[in-house]
Amino acid sequence: MDSKVMLDGSAPITPAVSLHHDSRHENVEMTVFNRSHIEMNSVDSPKSAEDSSSSDAAAHRREMIAMAAVCWTQFMAGWNDGTLGPLIPIIQEHFHIGFMVVSMLFVSACCGYVLGATAVIYFTDRYGFGRVLIGGSLFQIVAYSILSTTPPFPAMCVALTINGIGMSFQNAQTSSLVISLKNNPGTKMGAMHAAYGAGACVAPLISTQFSQIPRWSFYFLVSLGLAVSNTISQSLVFGFRTLPELLASFGIPEVVHTADSTKTSKYRQILNLKVVYILALFALLYVGTEVTIGGWIVTFLIENRGGGASSGYVSSGFFAGLMLGRLVLLWVNQKLGERRAVYLYSFLIIGLEFVVWFTPSLILNAVAISMVGLLLGRYFSDGSAIFANIFCRSILSNSHEPVGWFHTCMASAFRWNDTLTPDKIHRLLTGAISWIASSGMSGSAVFPFITGVIAQKHGVQVLQPLIVGLLGTMVVIWALIPQVGKKKE
């Protein structure tokens, strides 16, 4: 029977009744029939191949346009995070407040981010990818509109809370989209993080200029214009489509959500994964370190190194290092693997922080801080790559194959576990990313706030020992992350 299956995969066709019953004659007849069928197919194959190639090119073009929109959204996220550092001295002067009170700005942003991360799963299930993403960008527009009017300090805190909610929605959606892409998601994740670094690098250059004029809040008019362009970009590229619909337009088959995948609470499923807690703690320390340096280094240089208002450019150098590190250190990761590379970066950063701590030279401090940013740049990308692997392994405990990136995870789910659908993995991944990101944002509030509280009593020179302590703890947490490969994760 196997010999009668068509070579193009179609069902076998029963031949007409023949007077010949010799098996050799039957084989000859079928051979001639199959050969003629192949010849007919060969005539149509160039057209089919051309149509397939055209369809693939269109899907690739749509994916690249979507990546450009994602990178612009991440640029805005970096812009937002790179804003406060140079503005803190002028905000303190304008409102006549100390280090501890001004630190409430970080806490407010964190509260918004945590609120958004808690709600994003519900809103994504109810309204879909596009609506939640665009809604997040609208939150940013509202926040920047308030901030641009030089409101009272409590109103600034409320605006930053609103902004945090918007950033949380956008970060969860864009991250889950990029990590779900089929072709080179790791490279695209790196591009997304580089766009974040670019935004964080450019923002201090602009905010430093505004920090030297009385109407410093006009800086947020620039932010408002960029936020409006972000909303327009998202509306044109993504619209109100869901994530599976977007992936289908990129040539990744859409999967139907099954009833079995919602029987257990998604929150409970996420919290049952131990790796989420480990990565969340690592994100807490990493983002806390990054924002503490970016937020307080300008004040440190002004207070302890005799720098002027132009010290804000050092913050820009730090974030420029973050952006470049995510690109230029890829070859180090390829040689050493993510795990060993992060150990190397950590020890080098600790050494550079000692240089800043004990060397009074303003120029040397500025160079060292930029190098710290360069080495810190790979942390988040490396953590994301390892997390994608471990996450898929954790939820596919019955899988008998090595699991790599997200699309492999989906294939394994389809093959080995009937109840764990790719649609369910999309939802779990979005929730897990939000949970880890909210932990990171908690660090972005907790540690800058602790710095402000201690600096209120002992001076901002406490920044360097605090950073060294955070880095040392990060090394310990990194060692606790499960191994996912013998040589490279």
TrEMBL record:
Its main location: membrane. It comes from Rhizoctonia solani. GO terms for cellular component: endomembrane system; membrane. The chain crosses the membrane at residues 97-122, 275-298, 310-329, 341-357, 363-381, 428-450, 462-481. Belongs to the major facilitator superfamily. Residues 66-489 form the Major facilitator superfamily (MFS) profile domain. Coiled coil: none annotated. Keywords: Membrane, Transmembrane, Transmembrane helix, Transport. Pfam families: MFS_1. This is Major facilitator superfamily (MFS) profile domain-containing protein. Signal peptide: none annotated. One of its GO terms (molecular function) is transmembrane transporter activity. It is found in: Endomembrane system. It is a multi-pass membrane protein.
